[in-house]
Amino acid sequence: MSEIDRYKHQCIGIISCPSEYGIRNIPLYRLDESASEWDAKPGDLLLGGGSGESDALRVSLPEAIFLVTRDDWFDYDELDTIFRAYWGTSSAFIFGNGYAKLGWHPSKSMEFWLIDHIVAFILREYPETYGKYRGTQQLEQDGSICRLPNSNSEEITY
Q: What is the residue-wise DSSP string for 31-71?
């Protein structure tokens, strides 16, 4: 059983990570209940955490939207409550290898780069749910590494 399966959740997107160590389609889950495994509350997002793996990036909402779209909303002391990566160095290397092919560069935090893409994606695909939290700042990324899931469960190759 996957770690995510211990909690009520829904797959709301797929993020591409074409690593040389296996092309990956990583699910983006919305949690419908608190998940102690990732210190998450209902409504937070997890990138990964399924298919028997626990490697994940927890993104707290609406806080992450505020972080990247409002210039008056930033507190370095609170970043761990807004997002947190639950992966080790080997997984970070594999993810970095794939994300570099999509425009990420090590001069920027991988987590911030992913959050920009994730926020752009959810604002575009789920505007009725998340649009009310958007500030006026332009996003650095366009969400192009994200897409809606389809009904083919074999597409997830985490």
A: ESS-BGGGTB-TT-EEEE--TT---EEEE-TTHHHHHHH-T
